[in-house]
Write a structure and sequence with these properties.
With about 450 residues, the chain is an alpha/beta fold. The chain has 3 domains: about 100 residues, NAD(P)-binding Rossmann-like Domain (Rossmann fold, 3-Layer(aba) Sandwich); about 180 residues, Mur-like, catalytic domain (UDP-N-acetylmuramoyl-L-alanine:D-glutamate ligase, 3-Layer(aba) Sandwich); about 140 residues, Mur ligase, C-terminal domain (Protein-Tyrosine Phosphatase, Chain A, Alpha-Beta Complex). The chain has 15 helices and 20 strands. Strands 8-7-9-6-12-13-14 form a 7-stranded mixed sheet, sandwiched between helices. A 6-stranded mixed sheet has the order 15-16-20-17-18-19, with helices on both faces. A 5-stranded parallel sheet has the order 3-2-1-4-5. β1, α1 and β2 form a beta-alpha-beta unit. α5 crosses α8 and α5 crosses α9. The longest helix has 17 residues. The termini are far apart.
C-alpha cells in the first residue's frame, strides 16, 4: 500500500510513517518547514518528503491519503485555501483517513495495546512502560510522543503482540473531532491524571472527561483500566461506567520509595506506579518492573542537561524540559528543588525560564495559575512573544522575582545578567524556544567570570 501523509513531520505522524515503512508500506509525505531532525530520520528510512501542500501532489495517486490534525479547511487572507492539497483530495473524491484511524486498522489490529492517557506524564509513563516490558523480554512495539533515551527512537515495530502507545486526548482530524485515543482499542488503558487543557478545542473539564469515558468504553471486559486514585476527575469518569477490571495507584503507595534511579519528583513516582500496574496486567512482576526502572534513562527533553558553564566559584547548568501546563511546571520545579535539597545544595538557585506556547497557554486560560506554579523558582523569566494577554500583569504578585521579555535575545540577556555560580537554568517549553538553550550557554561563556 502507498500512503501519503499530510503533516508528516509532527511527532505522531512521523512515528506513524516509520511504523508504516517498517510494516512494508510505501510512504511519502508533505509538511511545511520540512527540517531536521525529523526530516533526516524519515529520509534515512527511504521516505520521500515534499515541502508544502501544493495540489500538484495529487499526481502521486497513493492508495490512501493520511491526514494529520494540523490540516484544516482554513483560508488565507486572500480567500485561497491554506491546504490546497486537501481541497483537491476532497474535490476529486479520493480516499482519505486520519493518522489514528490508519494506525488502528493497519498496525494495531490484533495487538495487545497498552495505551497511556492523561494530561501530564504520557510520554514519560509510556517510555517507562515500554522499557519495563523490554527488560521483561516482551520486546514491545511502541509509538511515543518523544524519544526514550533507552531506545533512542520514538517508534518501532516488532513481532511482539504487545504495543505501547501514548494516547493523546487531542482531536483526531478536521473531519473527526473525537480524541485520538478512541481509535486505539486498548486492552490495558492507563488514566494517569486529568485536568483542564486544550482550551482551543475543549470548552471545559467535563468535555474532556467525556472523551476519557469514550476511551474507557473501548476497553474489553477482560482488559484493565489502570487509574490514578487521587484524581477526582478520573473518579467521575469511572462513575459514568466501567466494564473492565481496575487497578488503582496513589501517592500514598510506598512501592518505589526506596528505588535508586535517575528521576526526581512525585510526578515521576506516580508515572512509575502507573507503568508498574500496567505491566502487571501482562504478567510482569513488581520486582522485575522495579529493576527495569532503576535503569530507566528518562526521555529526551525531560530534565535534559543541555550543558554547563564553569565559573571560578562553580558551574551554571542549563536544563531543557517539556513542561508547559502550570501543573507540569510546578511538579518539574518541585522535583528539581527536592533533588537539590537531597544533595545538600539548598543554597543553589533555580531560574525558571518558560514560554507559554501551547494553545491553552496562548489563550490565557491558565495565566492565573502561573505564580503558584512558579513557587519553587528563585527567579522566573517569561517569554511573552505572541501572547494576547499581559504576562507582566499575570505575574505581578511575584514582584521582582518575575521578569518578562518578548524578544528571545532580550530574555537571554536578562537571564545571563542575573545568573551566578551554582544556578540551574530550567528552560520549559513544548517547542524549540527559539534555540534559547544554546544562546544561554554562549551568553554565559562570554560573560565576565563570576
Amino acid at each position: 500500500m502507498h500512503i501519503h501523509i499530510l503533516g508528516i513531520c509532527g511527532t505522531f505522524m512521523g512515528g506513524l510513517a516509520a511504523l508504516a515503512r517498517a510494516a512494508g508500506h510505501k510512504v511519502t509525505g508533505c509538511d511545511t518547514g520540512v527540517y531536521p531532525p525529523m526530516s533526516d530520520q524519515l529520509r534515512a528510512l527511504g521516505i520521500e518528503l515534499i515541502e508544502g501542500y501544493d495540489s500538484a501532489q495529487l499526481a502521486l495517486n497513493p492508495d490512501v491519503w493520511v491526514v494529520g490534525n494540523v490540516v484544516s479547511r482554513a483560508q488565507l487572507a486572500d480567500g485561497s485555501p491554506r491546504y490546497p492539497l486537501m481541497e483537491a483530495i476532497l474535490d476529486r473524491g479520493d480516499r482519505y483517513t486520519s493518522g489514528p484511524e490508519w494506525l488502528s486498522a493497519h498496525i494495531l489490529q490484533g495487538k495487545h495495546v497498552l495505551a497511556v492517557a492523561g494530561t501530564h506524564g504520557k510520554t514519560t509513563t509510556s517510555s517507562m512502560l515500554a522499557w519495563v516490558l523490554e527488560c521483561a523480554g516482551l520486546h514491545p512495539s511502541f509509538l511515543i510522543g518523544g524519544v526514550p533515551l533507552n531506545f533512542g527512537v520514538s517508534a518501532r515495530l516488532t513481532d511482539s503482540k504487545y504495543f505501547v502507545i501514548e494516547a493523546d486526548e487531542y482531536d483526531t482530524a478536521f473531519f473527526d473531532k473525537r480524541s485520538k485515543f478512541v481509535h486505539y482499542r486498548p486492552r490495558t488503558a492507563v488514566l494517569n491524571n486529568l485536568e483542564f487543557d486544550h482550551a482551543d478545542i475543549f470548552p471545559n473539564l467535563e468535555a474532556i472527561e467525556r472523551q476519557f469515558h469514550h476511551l474507557v468504553r473501548t476497553v474489553p471486559s477482560n482488559g484493565r483500566v489502570v487509574v490514578n486514585g487521587d484524581e477526582p476527575a478520573l473518579a467521575r469518569v469511572l462513575a459514568q461506567g466501567c466494564w473492565s477490571s481496575t487497578a488503582k495507584f496513589s501517592k500514598t503507595d510506598a512501592l518505589i520509595e526506596g528505588i535508586e534511579w535517575q528521576l526526581s519528583g512525585l510526578h515521576n513516582r506516580m508515572n512509575a506506579l502507573a507503568a508498574i500496574a500496567a505491566a502487571a496486567h501482562v504478567g510482569v512482576k513488581q520486582g522485575e518492573a522495579l529493576r527495569a526502572l532503576a535503569t530507566f534513562e528518562n526521555v529526551k527533553r525531560r530534565m535534559e542537561v543541555k550543558g554547563t558553564v564553569a565559573t571560578p566559584n562553580g558551574s551554571i547548568t542549563v536544563i531543557d524540559d517539556f513542561a508547559h501546563h502550570p501543573t507540569a511546571i510546578a511538579t518539574t520545579l518541585d522535583g528539581l528543588r527536592r533533588q537539590l535539597d537531597a544533595q545538600g545544595k539548598q543554597s543553589e538557585r533555580i531560574l525558571a525560564i518558560f514560554e507559554p506556547r501551547s494553545n491553552t497557554m496562548k489563550l490565557g486560560a491558565m495565566k492565573s495559575q502561573l505564580p503558584q506554579a512558579l513557587t519553587d523558582a528563585d527567579l522566573a523569566f517569561c517569554h511573552s512573544g505572541g501572547l494576547d494577554w499581559d504576562a507582566q500583569a499575570a505575574l505581578a504578585s511575584m514582584g521582582s522575582r518575575a521578569v518578562v521579555a518578548s524578544p528571545i535575545d532580550e530574555l537571554v540577556r536578562l537571564v545571563v545578567a542575573q545568573a551566578r555560580a551554582g544556578d540551574h537554568l530550567l528552560c520549559m517549553s513544548n517547542g524549540g524556544f527559539g534555540g534559547i538553550h544554546q544562546k544561554l550557554l554562549e551568553g554565559l561563556k562570554n560573560k565576565i567570570p563570576m
